[in-house]
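Deliverable D5.2: sample structural annotation.
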Amino acid sequence: MSTRRGVLKPEVHFLNRGILKMQVDEFLANELARAGYGGVEIIKAPLGTRVIIKAARAGIVIGKHGKTVRDLTQRLQELFNLENPQIEVEEISVPELNARVMASRLASALQRGIHFRRAGYSVLRRIMSAGAQGAEIIISGKLTGQRAKYQKFRAGVIVKSGEPAFAFVDEAKEHVLLKPGVLGVKVRIMLPGEKMPDKVE
């Protein structure tokens, strides 16, 4: 670990990288909500910074003749001081198996005034119809009165602890501001085709 002036300690370097990714992720989530934004990866490359954007509707991210991508590239460089950002757009083949996309869609449905139970069950059915092993949706806040509570929607099998929870479960959170207050949305999806470590053949 170096302590020379001008050289960052390793833990500070990784902390800064994490903060940068969080800020870029929040910026892109606001800018690309209509595109079904599903997350971002930032990779430092010799010729610049690769920014891989995952979205359900890649065409909206790219824009007409690539205009949206060019605008995003310029803004990422100006706002976050990214060195020569190179944006790549990765289309999500099955949006229903991406927790970020489904949490965003559920938040949008609540924002449009759809009842939370109807919206929750609708999203749950779509996730399970796409082939997920299991799913859990939690909507919390002032749902029916002045006191905050939560409603849970579950189907199939979903693990919550140990290594399988990190490897096999996709999780995302969203918030939506309504007249009664802020509602929180959490979506967990147990991805299809994954085998648990304790399954023996």
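Annotation notes: The chain is about 35% helix and 30% strand. The first strand starts at residue 37 and ends at 45.
The annotation will be released with the project's public dataset once the embargo ends.
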